[in-house]
Amino acid sequence: MKRELKIHLNYTEGPILELGKTGIDIVDNDLILKKWLKEAASLCPVTAYDENGLLDCKIYETIKPKLAAYIWKISTRLDELTNGDLGALNDYDGLLKVDNPFEYALYNDSDDEIPEVIEGELVVWPSPESPMVNLLVGDIWSFISQEIDNLKLEYEVFGRIGLCCYSILQENPKANYFVPTIMCVHKGFIDTQEGINTTPIFVVEVVKSKVQKEYVLKKLSIYKKMGVEVWIVDVVNNNLAHYVSNNNELQSLKISLAEYLRNKI
Hints:
This protein has about 260 residues and is α+β, with helices and mostly antiparallel strands. The protein has nine helices and nine strands. The strands form three sheets. The chain has a five-stranded mixed beta sheet, with helices on both faces. Helix 6 runs antiparallel to helix 9.
């Protein structure tokens, strides 16, 4: 992968995050990327730097979680726009590691990002979705809701709601907090300020970039521990993957959902 996103911790070099001209119109003219780069620059006013032009260490530690979130969003956006040709998260390992990822993931109030914690790592996905993905997710959600009504199942379906895996699995220390694209749970589920604390019946993960698929696959072992059925709808490669659990109660819904998703892909 090419490294197009540059990080400057010295005031004289330029804004803290800088994306050079790529020669790719869809990237260079992307309004969402421009917005995030401008917002990232505002994290570090002139007063945040010392007399040598270096970013103050204490200020850096304060803004690091938000900076990591911008790096995630921008890199993932580049990955989506260019099908993996731009955006290399591995180049920024040191900057992406934050001391308390759960504090950021659980209490973040930004409407243009979806933070998760996967195996102790803060992972931030960009939002809003593309119109195509929004339409796909809405269609899947509507189909599942209608099937639940038709089959008179005691289930509820949610989109982009936090799942407190750490609480369900009683993890110590905490390691996992997911935000599935779609989640189906029994009525009477436990809901807290942080998210849902009840094991889902199944989840649907809609994947829209190569790096996102890599991290969704990391989540599978945790879903398996919880006994959760998982559907992965990969819109990059136009394929569908299904990971079964030991739950046999949703056979009718499973059959109809499988047929529906195959037709959508």
